[in-house]
């Protein structure tokens, strides 16, 4: 099932929960169809709803209306479980509309998208790095200034408190970025071959001056693997990935916290158990 068809199913399922609500009878079939088409188009603008799909949605809506009318005639809309499901459907519609409005304001910059791109490119690759680690930020800035003035990295690496790499000129060898702490990893991912960080990188260990010795290499792929496509070529896919990540973060922000859930459970009366 493709993304478009999935949204059709989800929207119809949501409407089925509200079908028994008397408010549902206030709207015509065309109004309901327009609302569904608008929602689907907002969620998946790259795939327009065609006439065939509109006709299929219309038929399913008509069938749903007829079934709901029959249910109301039998008084099923008065049942507690139906009222609860109807309320759930209304909440789902509101939640969907809220998320749609929030997503409309999401406009990531090229810098933010390039950060995601760099993170994706770095996966499965090894980086040849070297660093100088000191306790003082100003000392790290002095080292960066000396390196830019032409002093040798190997000589200044003797100042590093990371003695294991200091004896090797600060060389850390070939390693995947995931081997390093987040701050170090994020800074290293932005470097070009031979480039040094413009500012000290602070981590739990101190202040790092980092250099990417040479271009990253793929540790697993064969030598004839095609090169990684440039950012501009895959920007639309990166934007879609950013939207998905934002949506996930937005939704997770409304999940009940474990402590709150536990408190709610503790104060909710348990069902009577017949002995």
Keywords:
four-stranded antiparallel β-sheet; single chain; 11 helices; alpha+beta; 2 domains; 275 residues; disordered C terminus; elongated; 4 strands; Chitinase A, domain 3
Task: Explain this structure.
With 275 residues, the chain is an alpha+beta fold. It is 55% helix and 11% strand. It is built from 11 helices and 4 strands. The chain has helices at residues 3-18, 29-43, 51-73, 80-104, 110-122, 137-148, 153-156, 163-166, 182-189, 231-252, 258-267; strands at residues 125-134, 171-175, 201-203, 206-218. A hairpin with a 2-residue loop joins strand 3 and strand 4 (206-218). It is elongated and about 90 Å long. Residues 264-275 have low confidence and may be disordered.
What percentage of residues falls in helices of 4 or more residues? 55-70%
Estimated share of beta-strand residues: 5-15%
State the strand order across the main sheet: 2-1-4-3
Identify the overall geometry.
elongated
- Structural class from helices and strands? alpha+beta
Oligomer category: single chain
For the secondary structure, the number of strands is 4
Radius of gyration: 29 Å
User: How many structural units, i.e. domains?
Assistant: 2
**Topology pattern, helix = H, strand = E:** HHHHHEHHHEHEEHH
The overall average pLDDT, rounded, is 81
Largest sheet: 4 strands, antiparallel
Unreliably modeled segments: 264-275
Report how far the terminal alpha carbons are from each other.
48 Å
* DSSP helical segment count: 11
């Amino acid at each position: 099932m493709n993304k478009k068809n999935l949204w059709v199913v989800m929207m119809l399922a949501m409407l089925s929960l509200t079908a028994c609500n008397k408010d549902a009878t206030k709207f015509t079939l065309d109004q309901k169809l327009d609302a569904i088409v608008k929602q689907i188009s907002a969620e998946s603008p790259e795939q327009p709803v065609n006439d065939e799909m509109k006709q299929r949605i219309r038929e399913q809506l008509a069938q749903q209306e007829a079934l709901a009318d029959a249910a109301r005639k039998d008084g099923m809309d008065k049942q507690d479980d139906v009222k609860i499901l109807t309320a759930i459907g209304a909440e789902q519609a509101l939640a969907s509309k809220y998320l749609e409005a929030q997503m409309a304001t999401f406009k990531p910059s090229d810098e933010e998208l390039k950060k995601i791109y760099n993170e994706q490119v770095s996966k499965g690759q090894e980086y040849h790095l070297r660093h100088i680690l000191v306790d003082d930020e100003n000392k790290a800035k002095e080292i960066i200034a000396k390196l830019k003035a032409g002093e040798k990295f190997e000589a200044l690496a003797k100042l590093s408190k990371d003695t294991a790499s200091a004896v090797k000129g600060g060389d850390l060898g070939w390693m995947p970025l995931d081997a390093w702490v987040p701050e170090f990893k994020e800074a290293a991912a932005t470097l070009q071959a031979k480039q040094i960080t413009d500012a000290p990188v602070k981590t739990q260990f101190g202040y790092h001056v980092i250099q990417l010795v040479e271009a990253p290499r793929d540790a697993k792929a064969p030598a004839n693997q095609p090169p990684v496509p440039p950012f501009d070529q895959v920007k639309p896919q990166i934007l879609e990935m950013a939207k998905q990540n934002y949506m996930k973060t937005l939704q997770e922000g409304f999940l009940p916290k474990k402590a709150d859930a536990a408190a709610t459970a503790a104060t909710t009366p348990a069902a009577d158990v017949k002995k």
